[in-house]
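sry for the spam today, last one i promise. struct tokens for design, 512 residues
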């Protein structure tokens, strides 16, 4: 078994399923068409009924919203659009009352350009906080180095006032903090303590792999060009910084947890961010966001994760989030595939992260040009959650900040709750099965030989065993199995196990 600290007992987050809330789009209660914290509080019962263990809430801090909250101007207050600090306290308490843990999003790599720290930093070359950000002279009328920003253009903006350039790996409104400065480290640790003191159970750490930087800020190798914009910033200094962050989090009781966004392509590189169990507790594994829908590609992915993470680094699984097209959309909108994907997500070895609305089988909204607002082109997956079938879908306005996703009425929470064959009930059944089975929530995984078009794996913890079969084929397939098995969950709908998989069907089997 992979341990973490005490080998004899497993921390809560290893058996947990985490549900991501994108607060702008969850539910509005104030009538401005943007979701808020009270909206989340009012629908926690939906999440408790669904059966997840924890929520991660995307940023709700004070922000000018250039990057919809990922540009923070005050880490220790709630933006009025989302509510108040008291609402945040109420939300944490209300979630805990229902047995749900709460992770908040912490954005350490950059602040907003309106953060008082940056306002001071840019005010003069002698400002107290000048060195809290990266200010450099340019080269021959151009920026100080050849780095590119994730959202396009150079990663540098020239500031007239002091005649120097500042670094921003994202938007110009998101200047990078200089974690080489001990005062920045101390101030950002204080932010962690602020939320830990308020009772949060942990943090999702935004672009955790970017915070360490070589102060010489050397050019990227020309070959990387503008393609791999952030790959070069996988700097060894980050690991030291993550150890400091881990010490703060671990100094609190109750197994507080960190899960970091480590946006690197190689699992072996991601492995390094777990450290010797003294850096991130978990790192996101984003490979499933781009894997092909074939048995061979998924087998390869699972084996890569198992091999490269090895013991000591607990895996994570993600199909959708607020930064990328929803998996149902990526899978061509096909409901059968989306259902089979849900089985994969919730039966692989590791902690699954769900994205709001995937339990309804939502697809990306088709956002007309004139309504697009995100600098990164990610509006479609951020469409509002429909709660009821009728117009307005339970929101106080008919037309929220982004358009509704397709078939919003039929795929609303209320409609799906009343339909035992819905995506919602499939997720619920899988979550119940997972919770009742140590094999599924914590056990070993073994990928098994299987006929073409099918992925088969066994999960095992002691005497508890499950067999999972996933068909990637568009036709029915026979699966000869040696032992007597009975179906716990079938993605194509309840039916006894007869040794045949429907097209794109996944099944969880237990010994008869
Ligand atoms: C992360 C967030 C994304 C944001 C970026 C900059 O990738 O998930 O939404 O735009 O960081 O903070």
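last one done:
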């Amino acid at each position: 078994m992979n341990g973490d600290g005490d080998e004899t007992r497993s921390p809560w987050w290893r058996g947990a399923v985490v549900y991501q809330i994108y607060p702008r789009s969850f539910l509005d209660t104030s009538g401005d068409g943007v979701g808020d914290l009270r909206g989340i509080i009012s629908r926690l019962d939906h999440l408790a009924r669904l059966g997840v263990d924890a929520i991660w809430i995307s940023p709700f801090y004070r922000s000018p919203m250039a990057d919809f909250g990922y540009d923070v101007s005050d880490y220790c207050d709630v933006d009025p659009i989302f509510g108040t600090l008291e609402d945040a306290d109420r939300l944490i308490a209300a979630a805990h009352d229902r047995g749900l843990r709460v992770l908040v999003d912490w954005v350490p790599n950059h602040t907003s350009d309106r953060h008082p720290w940056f306002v001071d930093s840019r005010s003069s070359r002698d400002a107290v906080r000048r060195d809290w950000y990266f200010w450099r002279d340019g080269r021959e009328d151009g920026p100080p180095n050849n780095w590119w920003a994730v959202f396009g253009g150079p990663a540098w903006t020239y500031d007239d006032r002091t005649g120097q350039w500042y670094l921003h790996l994202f938007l110009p409104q998101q200047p990078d903090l200089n974690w080489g400065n001990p005062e920045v480290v101390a101030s950002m640790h204080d932010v962690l303590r602020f939320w830990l003191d308020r009772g949060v159970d942990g943090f999702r750490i935004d672009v955790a792999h970017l915070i360490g930087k070589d102060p010489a800020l050397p050019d990227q190798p020309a070959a990387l060009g503008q393609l791999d914009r952030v790959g070069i910033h996988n700097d060894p200094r980050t690991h030291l910084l993550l150890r400091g962050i881990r010490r703060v989090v671990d100094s609190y009781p109750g197994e507080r947890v960190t899960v970091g966004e480590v946006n690197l392509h190689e699992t072996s590189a991601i492995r390094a961010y777990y450290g010797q169990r003294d850096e991130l507790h978990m790192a996101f594994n984003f490979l499933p966001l781009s894997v092909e829908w074939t048995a061979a590609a998924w087998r390869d992915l699972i084996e890569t994760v198992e091999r490269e993470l090895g013991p000591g680094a607990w895996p994570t699984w993600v199909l959708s989030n607020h930064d990328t097209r929803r998996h149902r959309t990526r899978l061509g909108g096909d409901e059968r595939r989306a259902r089979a994907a849900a089985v994969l997500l919730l039966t692989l070895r590791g902690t699954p992260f769900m994205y709001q609305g995937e339990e309804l089988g939502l697809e990306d909204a088709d956002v007309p040009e004139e309504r697009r607002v995100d600098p990164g082109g990610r509006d479609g997956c951020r469409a509002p959650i429909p709660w009821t079938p009728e117009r307005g879908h339970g929101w106080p306005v008919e037309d929220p900040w982004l358009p509704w996703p397709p078939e919003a009425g039929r795929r609303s929470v209320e409609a799906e709750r009343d339909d035992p064959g819905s995506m919602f009930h499939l997720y619920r059944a899988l979550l119940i099965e997972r919770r009742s089975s140590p094999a599924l929530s914590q056990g070993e995984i073994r990928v098994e030989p299987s006929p073409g078009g099918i992925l088969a794996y066994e999960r095992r913890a002691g005497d508890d065993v499950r067999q999972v079969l996933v068909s990637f084929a568009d036709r029915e397939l026979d699966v000869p199995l040696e032992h007597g098995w009975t179906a716990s969950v079938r993605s194509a709908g309840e039916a006894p196990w007869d040794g045949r998989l429907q097209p794109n069907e996944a099944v969880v089997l237990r010994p008869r």
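Confidence is low (pLDDT under 50) at residues 1-7. ok im logging off now
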